[in-house]
């Protein structure tokens, strides 16, 4: 282990003090230069300034990890758009985004859809799938999803899909991506 337990606790505090979530601490000690990657995420995303500030705060810790014969490279990064949706918070943050889905054996659902509201207590997310007049809303149980990843889109989401992300009368109904809800 490159990062000692007390330093892991310090990393967690530094990340949470910024209102972010610590997603992972990845350690690679396979070469002469060790690498530690701190992966963070947040409800409002993660800015380059957030990453730079966090990196500056953690750099003094990293100085003590490897020793003179074993340099350590510290990287602080966000999850990235290609990271799978694994936790309810990932689904909540993906609201309005299109995703590709695969299911656990025996479960069925849309292979592609737009993420709507999440009922975290029930473990169900609202997914808008289909095209044209065949658009439908499907409740998808999170425990039936084997893998889900955001699709990168190069144009705005169609308004008729965005209008279906919430139940009629629910908060967020008709809100466009990026607007306050």
Overview of the molecule:
- By secondary structure, this protein is α+β, with helices and mostly antiparallel strands.
- β1 and β2 form a beta hairpin.
- α1 runs antiparallel to α2.
- The longest helix has 16 residues.
- The chain contains four helices and eight strands; from the N terminus they run αββαβαβββββα.
- Strands 7-6-5-4-8 form a five-stranded antiparallel β-sheet. Strands 1-2-3 form a three-stranded mixed β-sheet, covered by helices on one side.
List keywords for this structure.
181 residues, alpha+beta, 3-stranded mixed sheet, elongated, disordered C terminus
Task: Summarize the SSE layout with pairings.
Blueprint lengths: L4 H13 L3 E8 L5 E8 L6 H16 L8 E7 L9 H6 L4 E6 L8 E8 L4 E6 L6 E6 L3 E6 L8 H4 L19
Parallel strand pairs: 2-3
Antiparallel strand pairs: 1-2, 4-5, 4-8, 5-6, 6-7
Please compute the radius of gyration using only Cα atoms.
20 Å
- Tell the overall outline: elongated
Distance between the termini: 43 Å
Main pleated sheet:
5 strands, antiparallel
Low-confidence stretches: 173-181
Helix segment count? 4
Structure class: alpha+beta
Determine the strand fraction and express it as a percent band: 25-35%
Instruction: Report strand order across the widest sheet.
Output: 7-6-5-4-8
């Amino acid at each position: 282990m490159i990062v000692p337990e007390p330093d892991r606790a310090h990393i967690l505090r530094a990340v949470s003090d910024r209102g972010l979530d610590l997603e992972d601490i990845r350690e690679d000690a396979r070469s002469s230069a060790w690498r530690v990657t701190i992966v963070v995420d947040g409800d409002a995303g993660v800015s380059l300034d957030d990453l730079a500030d966090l990196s500056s705060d953690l750099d003094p810790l990293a100085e003590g990890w490897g020793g003179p014969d074993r340099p350590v490279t510290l990287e602080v990064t966000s999850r990235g758009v290609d990271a799978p949706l694994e936790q309810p918070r990932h689904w909540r943050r993906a609201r309005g985004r299109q995703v590709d889905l695969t299911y656990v054996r025996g479960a069925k659902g849309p292979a592609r859809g737009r993420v709507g509201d999440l009922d975290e207590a029930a473990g169900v997310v609202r997914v808008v799938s289909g095209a044209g007049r065949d658009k439908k809303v499907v409740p998808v149980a999170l425990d039936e999803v084997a893998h889900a990843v955001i699709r990168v889109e190069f144009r705005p989401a169609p308004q008729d899909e965005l209008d279906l992300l919430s139940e009629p009368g629910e908060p967020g109904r008709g809100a466009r991506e990026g607007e306050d809800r």
